[in-house]
Amino acid sequence: MIDAGIVRVVVQDARRRRGMRDVAAAAGVSVSTVANVLNNPAVVAEATRSRVEAAMDAIGFVRSAAARQLRGLPSRLVGSITLDQSNPFYAELNRGIEDHLDEAGCMLLACSTDLSPDKELRALRLLEEQSPRGVIITPTGEQPQRLTAVSSRGTPVVLLDARQAGTDLCAVAVDHELGGRLAGEHLIGLGHRRIAFVTAGPDIEPVRQRRDGLAAASRGRDRRQERAADLVELRMAPAGFAEGTDAVISAMLDRADPPTAAVCVNDVVALALIRGLEARGLRVPGDLSVVGYDDLPFAAHVRPALTTIARPIRELGRVAAELLLSEDAAGHRHQELVFRPRLVVRSTTGPIG
Amino acid sequence: MIDAGIVRVVVQDARRRRGMRDVAAAAGVSVSTVANVLNNPAVVAEATRSRVEAAMDAIGFVRSAAARQLRGLPSRLVGSITLDQSNPFYAELNRGIEDHLDEAGCMLLACSTDLSPDKELRALRLLEEQSPRGVIITPTGEQPQRLTAVSSRGTPVVLLDARQAGTDLCAVAVDHELGGRLAGEHLIGLGHRRIAFVTAGPDIEPVRQRRDGLAAASRGRDRRQERAADLVELRMAPAGFAEGTDAVISAMLDRADPPTAAVCVNDVVALALIRGLEARGLRVPGDLSVVGYDDLPFAAHVRPALTTIARPIRELGRVAAELLLSEDAAGHRHQELVFRPRLVVRSTTGPIG
DNA sequence: ATGAAAGCGCTAACAT
DNA sequence: ATGTTAGCGCTTTCAT
Fold this sequence. Notes:
The structure is a homodimer. Chain A has helices at residues 20-27, 31-39, 46-59, 65-70, 88-103, 117-129, 144-152, 176-189, 205-219, 246-253, 267-279, 313-325; strands at 77-82, 107-112, 134-137, 157-160, 170-174, 194-200, 230-236, 261-264, 289-294, 307-310, 336-339, 342-344. Chain A is α/β, with parallel strands linked by helices. The longest helix of chain A is centred in the first third of the chain and has 16 residues, at 88-103. The N and C termini of chain A lie far apart (92 Å).
């Protein structure tokens, strides 16, 4: 309520964001001319344009993405939901996504779920409120219908390291069944007949697929042998590089017929296992051959260097981003891309002694 | 233009986002009642509230962050600009940031600069358009005034792994001078008198500080000795774990008085150096003692295990996020927090042979 | 307890 | 070539 006797003093607030109206005022033009300078510069007279641009610089104009969004323009934000962005695998994945998004002027909103369906749901909700251009997700596997719901509300969803499984979404996957089989066949080829599968943490889909592949190899693919190898299943405490390996190693060695080789669910578990064995005076691959999974950067540089199953991590991210940004193109069809992992033989596997 | 003779048919577009208006229509109330259910539920009659909530679920209502922002409510987005989010150090930092943001319902927008001032500027611009709650940045070091400009326009900026240096911004820093000195004193204590400082990539501020600290140690802190050790400076090709080490090792060993120890700018460089030495049949620490920096997760698990300078990485991120979110509190004063790194002695350093 | 209406900064359709 | 204006979805103030 302004008393008629009081002169209203407008205090210049330095922190206030300057908008197109401020630019227009400073340049002595209308807002639509400012809009034209921004969106359709060809149509503006040279002199006017430079005057407007000067005004923008002078007052520190920054376009409001919120306002553009409200007008219906596409968002520059893309969500990424991974199990843990500090995990070197997902960090690399996110970088691949970022690299592609950057070319399109988009940015990455990175969330971690720690494999909790609750955190996943929360992240999805928060992301959806931002009306992102889309969401790339490494799903925990629970409640896949939550993802199709997001998609049906207009936010494209791309699955990463997961198969479509009837969700009708785009997906970028890795043939983990093949990965498991490659590991198994490599070991069987070296003469191993009792092989352990060492996991850490819950059995999410990609883990199950690796086990299936390993099991397929152990069953033997050619008809000459009844069964190529026996499989034993072991689960360590999920603890990064830490030494949760004692129980696993005991369980392995206390058997009447201890395995001579182990396929690990990832490189981190493989390294932990190797260190645990060393601590007991056992040698890799002398006493046990070990295969990792992922071929993280350190895999080639630990000693002994890790035999592992490699997949093109950054490329997976890049392709997922590409798929996502293409979702709004006319005639887009959901598709599933499956990458084939490959075996990298280094020094943690050897012939059965 | 609607011809009076034509009946306008509204086609239900499943992909259209449902807003508060849709909820209101479905529940038979006004938008302000819907708004009250959302923002001020106590004021709404029980029956009405549950009817509105049912309507929200039924039509799949998702609040628009853009519209709220436009109304002046605080954003839930926080930008993070690091040198490379796939680098395990920054990945861990981002996770620390994310963890704290999550408690406040905020999300992380992660950008990488690859140390390019251009990419940094671009990221800043894109971020600023999103009107984030603030930006946490590991600066490339070029054009610090760009950062104060952002800050003066109302987007709080927190420096990470950098000192304020007269910028009048909040900062979370590490005393790298101390880190360099700890490394140097450790080696000098072991009898080393010729020490190499091995870097990779440009000399950004944190690197300079480490060198300064190492130099201080080499100059000797107690008065009994004129000079504790000689320093030699070496720079490898910046190439991650890769083998850009040959030239450096040659440069080191071809000297008349080769160094007996090396302080590396980070753990990755240290590991690469160690592998390069091994490839030439040289032993660590037998022929050369090596100190890393950062204490990344793999440092304890490579062989020989890395002696290194540790800092609380995730904590740095968490504190930076905390500082950032506190910027809009009444009476906020910019502050600088400096963390003290510590020496972790493992197996890559030993007494001079 | 509920509703009407203005306005945040921008874009786009239209008018001049 | 430039200007006028409606409206995106929400919050908030002010009625009722």
